[in-house]
Amino acid sequence: MNSQRIGWVGMGRMGYPMAERLVRAGYDVRIWNRTRSKAEPLAAAGATLVDSPRDLADVDVFCTMVSTGADVEQVYFGENGVLSGSGAPKVMIDWSSISVDQSADLRGRVNDRGAEFLCSPVSGNGKCVKAGKLSAVVSGPEAVFDGVRDIIETVAANGVSYVGEGELARFCKIAHNVFLGVVTQNLAEITVLAEKAGVSRRAFLDFMNNSVMGSIFTRYKTNALINLDWTTTFTPALLRKDMDLGLTAARALDVPMPVTATTREALQAHFGMAQLHDDPEEYLARDFAAILETVAQHAGLELRSENAPYPTGLEVPDAAE
């Protein structure tokens, strides 16, 4: 059993498998989630389920993996938040994707309570976590990072990059997700271009994956693009939020980002196209890769599933399940 006691809040598509890696590694993990039923399976696997974040104030390391800065704020300082009483964890790690300003504000308030703060946003989805392909970028006091490095590396088994003090990791994550948006938009465009010329999506994407332009990302998205499988890993709304964070940072730092700005508006077209569906809210809850449909509609191309399974590269052996 690893000696550090870990508190974890967030049992969503990312948070659950991340916390699960810590449980399997033998850590004492105590968990809370707003929807209790989502946390109960991990409690059955060895974690300890508590009634509120306030119950986690005495842990050594407190982790959050939630959707927005407002969510982090609520978990930290809201009613029954982890810092709503007199106690405080020794180290607080936020793995979420939030703005630089929100992160800096949280850091100051956490430090005022005598706790240390690290931001550790990640690259990958839930399948990446399970396959050991998640990576993380970390900033904050280096000595604090060194003290919890084993925890972070257990979760982000593909690699951890320490980039310096303060909120520098937030800038890295924002830049990462801007690239995610640009790559996905362009991948959709060139896939539609090839299909309209007469090439099947499977054949074209297989070529791309085997080329110097292929990547872990293009390979694990290929199955979705071939078979129009929009099982959610990341929503268009979250991607739009991150594109906006990137453009806001660029304006503050006087960095021209014309490709990002164009991609952001192309993404906005997907939100407009959703209004043509019977249930726009349900449609926008699907995976962000569904922007392929918007690109195809603009090109006058009717998409059909090719019913051709393609390996994602993130398959987990049964023994590791």
Shape: globular
- Overall structural class, as computed from helix and strand content, comes to alpha/beta
Give the CA-CA distance, first to last residue.
21 Å
- The total tally of domains equals 2
Number of helices: 13
Number of strands: 9
The level 1 CATH classification of the largest domain is: Alpha Beta
**If you average the pLDDT, what whole number results?**
95
How would you describe what is shown here?
By secondary structure, the protein is α/β, with parallel strands linked by helices. The protein has 2 domains: 2-166, NAD(P)-binding Rossmann-like Domain (Rossmann fold, 3-Layer(aba) Sandwich); 171-320, N-(1-d-carboxylethyl)-l-norvaline Dehydrogenase, domain 2. Helix content is 50%, strand content 13%. The protein has helices at residues 15-24, 36-44, 69-77, 100-112, 126-131, 142-155, 168-197, 201-210, 216-227, 236-252, 258-274, 280-284, 291-298, and strands at residues 2-9, 27-32, 48-49, 61-64, 91-94, 116-119, 122-123, 135-139, 159-164. The strands form 2 sheets. It has a 6-stranded parallel sheet, with helices on both faces. It has a 3-stranded mixed sheet with strand order 7-8-9. β2, α2 and β3 (48-49) form a beta-alpha-beta unit. The model has no long low-confidence stretch (mean pLDDT 95).
